[in-house]
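Need tokens for this chain, all 76 residues.
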Amino acid sequence: MEEKIIAIIENLTGYTKLKENRDIDLLENEILDSLAFIELITTLEEEFDIEIQPTQVEPNTWRNIKKISDLVEKLK
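Here are the structure tokens for all 76 residues:
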């Protein structure tokens, strides 16, 4: 699942070093801007057939690949 999430984020952002640096803070390092963040949520919902609630859109949940993967896994 993490590999698919990495591919989605790389496709949305153009940042290609996530496989080597899975712990990078996506927000602090400005890899995910506000538009990419919304596109990521929409894409994850479509790709994994999940629904992300507004209460789950808090910055700490979206900081790195592991946290995003944990959220997706929880919602499946």
